[in-house]
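Q&A log
Question type: sequence-to-structure
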Amino acid sequence: MTDNELVAETTIRVRFDEVDALGIVWHGHYLKYLEDAREAFGKKFNLTYMGVYGNGFSIPLVNINIDYKLPLKYEDTAKVVIQYIDSDAAKLMFHYTILNESGEVVLTAKTTQVFLSKSGELQLLMPDFFKHWKLQNLCKKQ
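Response status: OK
Response body:
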């Protein structure tokens, strides 16, 4: 990572209800960990879900790619790192890495979110508030 990248991280602790009969995290729960990272990113860089909604939009996930490397187990602690991927399109893209306590990569993932108006219309042009957000956050990092 370089200094001009927008990166945030959060720590998760695996709860009992997140593991399967084999004692490992069920694959679907990793989506919640990615959500935790998106919320941490939003708080750090002032791009929260309610802030986006307050500007008249929602940002649903339209694509999720996950590569599982190692399992997490009950009571494991892991770090979820999220990195913003810049695009000229009207969408949000993130890359994620989940690391276990030993620093080993547990999972890598990428998500894409699009902007919808409050009435549910796909926005093909970047909303003005998001253009402003990019100017504030990407320009000051370069």
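Response note: The two ends are 13 Å apart (CA to CA).
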